[in-house]
Amino acid sequence: MAVLVRDALRAARRADLHVVPAVNVRISTAWRTAPIPDVVVLNRKPVGASFAADDLVLAVEIWSPGNPRAERETKMAGYAAAGVPFVWTIDQGDELRGPVLTAYRLADGQYVAENTVHPAGPAAITAAPFPITLDLADLDS
C-alpha cells in the first residue's frame, strides 16, 4: 500500500507530503496512546520513528482477521480525537471476496465514509489529502 500511495503522491507532484510505513503515532486520548498504522502520509519530512498526530494527513490501517471490532473502533476514535483528517481502512477479505478499502474524511470530529473501493479496476479516492486513483488489484503485486 505504501508504494501505491507514494506513486500517487509523485504523480500529483506533492513533494510536500511523505509516505512512511508502520510508524508510531503519538496520540494522547482516552481511547489510544500509540497506534502504529500500516502507512501514514506526513506533512513534514520523516525524521525518527514516532510522529505527532498533527504531522499526519492520512493514516492507513490494514485490518487483519485478528483485529477485533473493539480495537478497530478504538483506533478510529483515537485518530478522530487527535484530528487526523483522513483515514483509510482496508479489510483484507478472503478467498471469495478481495480486499475492500474504505476512505474516511473527518467531519465535525467523526469520520464519514466517503469512498468504498473494491478490486474492480482503478478507482478515484477523494477522502485524501489530494485526489488519488488506485487499483486494489495492485496490492497483490
Mind telling me which CATH architecture this is?
A: Alpha-Beta Complex
Could you tell me the radius of gyration in angstroms? 14 Å
| Secondary structure: number of strands | 10
C-alpha geometry: globular
What order do the SSEs take from the amino end to the carboxyl end, as H and E?
HEEEEEHEEEEE
The CATH topology turns out to be tt1808, chain A
Task: Outline the biggest β-sheet.
Answer: 6 strands, mixed
Please report the number of helical segments.
Answer: 2
Fraction of residues in H or I helices: 10-25%
The fourth-level CATH homologous superfamily is tt1808, chain A
Low-pLDDT stretches are none
Strand order of the largest sheet: 1-3-5-6-7-8
How far apart are the termini?
Answer: 10 Å
Percent strand equals 35-45%
CATH class: Alpha Beta
Estimate the mean pLDDT confidence.
86
Global structural class: alpha+beta
Q: Provide the domain count.
A: 1
Describe this structure in words.
The chain is of the alpha+beta class. The protein has a single domain, classed as tt1808, chain A. It has 2 helices and 10 strands. It has helices at residues 2-11, 69-82; strands spanning 18-21, 24-26, 39-42, 50-52, 56-63, 86-91, 100-107, 110-117, 123-125, 132-134. The protein has a 6-stranded mixed β-sheet. The chain has a two-stranded parallel sheet with strand order 2-4. The relative contact order is 0.17. The mean pLDDT is 86.
Short characterization:
By secondary structure, the protein is of the alpha+beta class.
